[in-house]
Amino acid sequence: MTGIGYDVHSFSENRPLVLGGVTVPHTHGLAGHSDADVLCHAIADAVLGAMGQPDIGHFFPPGDPACKDICSLRILEKCRDLVADAGLRIINVDSTLIAEAPKILPYREAMREKIGDALGIPLERVGIKATTNETMGFIGRKEGIAALAVAQIE
Questions:
Q1: pLDDT at 73 (0 to 100)
Q2: Residue 106 belongs to what domain range?
């Protein structure tokens, strides 16, 4: 079974930028109720989608005080547990971050490790790529970051 996920967050001042569970040095973080980790959110929705489950907002409502500033790796762990409880297993995830800045490559391996650990899958089954939006749209204007993800479970 395969699922897709998409998430987007605008930049916000005075917040750390967290991507794939890694704090990435940047002038701005992302706005959101949780840590706003756009990469983990897209992956979570892909895993949940592969199972036919609702999106992460169902399990982690944006207005829930218990979810305030939650580390999005905890969201991935919940997805892992839901998969296991259903008698299934995560085969792999693949994702793409879309941002003009910052550069992702220096942090890619640390992100893969943290995501793999949270999902209980080997590093070689976690794909993370990055691209720009060629200066077009809100991403091109450096107003935020988007992420796409695919997950396969069986």
A1: 97
A2: 2-153
